[in-house]
Amino acid sequence: MYVWGGLWAQLALLGALTWWKTGRTRWLALYILAAAAGLWTLYLFVTVLLVANLAFLVFWWRVRRPLPALGLWAAAQAAALLLFAPWLAYALPRMMSWSSAEP
């Protein structure tokens, strides 16, 4: 799962960075799919999304701060979370604790 997590992280960051540079939405779609796949693969993948969001905010602040880009980025985050939501709804009630020790 760690190898898959690394792959999804690279694809998500590649998609985000290329979208920031070119503005083509197909790269944003790659980000969304890779972010959702990363969350399905590894719960710690949320740190990759935090880094991507912090980097976006820095990028957005340094560039003219266009509101449409901010809205599109927020929509991409919501789309990735919506793709992850069914798994979260399935898994959370079945988790007794975060511990791996037997009861």
Walk me through the structure.
- With 103 residues, this protein is mainly α.
- It contains 4 helices and no strands.
- Helix 1 runs parallel beside helix 3 (46-62) and helix 2 runs parallel beside helix 4 (67-91).
- The longest helix has 25 residues, at 67-91.
- The radius of gyration is 15 Å and the shape is elongated.
Q: What would you say about this model in short?
A:
With 103 residues, this protein is an all-alpha fold. The protein has helices spanning 2-22, 25-41, 46-62, 67-91.
Question: What secondary-structure arrangement, pairings included, does this model have?
Answer:
Elements: H1 2-22, H2 25-41, H3 46-62, H4 67-91
Helix pairs in contact: 1-2, 1-3, 2-4
Annotation, overall tally of beta strands: 0
Order of helices and strands: HHHH
Which structural class fits the helix and strand makeup? Answer: mainly alpha
Gap between N and C termini:
25 Å
Largest sheet, in brief, is:
none
What's the total helix number?
4
Helix content estimate: over 70%
Question: What is the averaged pLDDT score?
Answer: 90
Q: Low-confidence parts lasting 5 or more residues at pLDDT below 50?
A: none
The percentage of residues in β strands lies in: under 5%
Rounded to an integer in angstroms, the radius of gyration calculated over CA atoms is 15 Å
Gross morphology = elongated
